[in-house]
Amino acid sequence: MLDTHAHLDFSEFDADRDDVVQRMRQVGIDNLIIPGVSPEHWPKQLLIAKQYQSYFALGIHPWFCPANVDETISALTLLVSQLRECPRFVAIGECGLDKLYPDNWSQQLLFFEAQLALAHDVNLPVIIHAVKAHQEILSYLKRHKLPRGGVIHAFSGSSDIALEYTKLGFKLGIGGLIMNPNAKKLLKTVSELPLESFLLETDSPAMTPLNVTEKRNQPANAVLFIDKIATLQKKSSVLISEHLVSNAMQLFDL
Questions:
Q1: pTM of the full predicted structure?
Q2: Helices 184-192 & 159-167, crossing angle to 10 degrees?
Q3: How many secondary structure helices (H) and strands (E) does the chain include?
Q4: Among 46, 69, 106, 193, which residue has the least CB neighbours within 10 Å?
Q5: Which residues, other chains included, contact 191 with Cβ-Cβ below 8 Å and sequence gap of 6+?
Q6: pLDDT in tens, the chain (254 residues)
């Protein structure tokens, strides 16, 4: 199995990163994708990805948009060109829009569009952070028509919104929220859409599922979501696991 979204480079894992990776592998999560979030994070992210032979993406998260757009996008473009031939570099992101952070909304829009253009130029999928901004994101995606599509990270919306994304070649990242019985829109979406629509992810160290006592989320928790998806889809857990791996391999060309 593959955790398609885990910030293994974050400081929450500094004290026991080896143990976290060992635990992940013991439960059958063979590898993960580490998304990029900001220029300040990229050097450590790349070191951690190399150390554990993890897949990685490069991007600028909407929470971390620097003041200088042109300079930062130029730095990202240069880094992408330097690492373009690395087989573990699989996507642009984590990028996107988050209306819960209105103070830098204009910066978010500029950085998001610039990263979509970059993904188009280098023919890579995108990992998108979408919070309270589906209509804006869909508008940008329809304008840019990315040939490789991507994933809507931590999707929690309705089946109707989900279908709009899948028609554009996007998959939906399913994580810890699926264990919350109050996430009714998400549960309904996972039960209704074809299994080809989904990817398995944790967003570690964030988005810890309700049924886990440790406050920090970790990649090993991804296995907990398989049975829930199987129940909603009325399919076997083995089939769900195999299909989600196949979805990730197809999207990220692994």
A1: 0.97
A2: 50
A3: 9, 8
A4: 106
A5: 232, 233
A6: 999 999 999 999 999 999 999 999 999 999 999 999 999 999 999 999 999 999 999 999 999 999 999 999 999 999 999 999 999 999 999 999 999 999 999 999 999 999 999 999 999 999 999 999 999 999 999 999 999 999 999 999 999 999 999 999 999 999 999 999 999 999 999 999 999 999 999 999 999 999 899 999 999 999 999 999 999 999 999 999 999 999 999 999 99
